[in-house]
Design a protein that fits this description.
Layout: H1 2-10, E1 24-29, E2 39-46, E3 51-56, E4 59-60, E5 62-69, E6 72-80, E7 85-93, E8 96-103, E9 108-116
Antiparallel strand pairs: 1-2, 1-9, 2-3, 3-4, 3-5, 5-6, 6-7, 7-8, 8-9
Length: 118
């Protein structure tokens, strides 16, 4: 079985995307004031080797990883605003994503939710 899987993966391009409900485009709700919507797009490409590429908050995802374990699929990655890193972790929960982003250089931790984007 492992040999068959290994042979199947040999012909697969390195950047191939895994078919996974967490992959794709998400609209992230970053609103901090009730009644004042503020959203940004998150694009996730999940690779067979556990890597994540894409973008979040208009920044390229760096050093991204994903994993399905303990009944949930999650991603972790880093982005930057040019002044410092933003560390993000998020998990699929039903048809939504729940996440948080930490920016030590800005002294904040922000919890957010996302829904499937167009």
């Amino acid at each position: 079985m492992r040999m068959v899987l290994a042979l199947a993966l040999i012909g697969m391009p390195a950047a191939a995307q895994v078919s996974n409900p967490l992959a794709g485009r998400w609209t992230v709700d970053l609103s901090s004031e009730p009644g004042t919507p503020y959203t940004k797009t998150m694009e996730l490409t999940l690779a067979p080797d556990g890597g994540v590429t894409g973008s979040f908050y208009d920044s390229e995802i760096q050093a991204g990883k994903w994993k399905t374990d303990r009944g949930r699929t999650c991603v972790s990655f880093r982005t930057s605003d040019g002044k410092g890193p933003y560390h993000t972790a998020a998990c699929l929960r039903g048809d939504r994503v729940e996440g948080q982003t930490w920016a030590e250089h800005r002294n904040f931790l922000f919890n957010w939710n996302a829904v499937r984007g167009d």
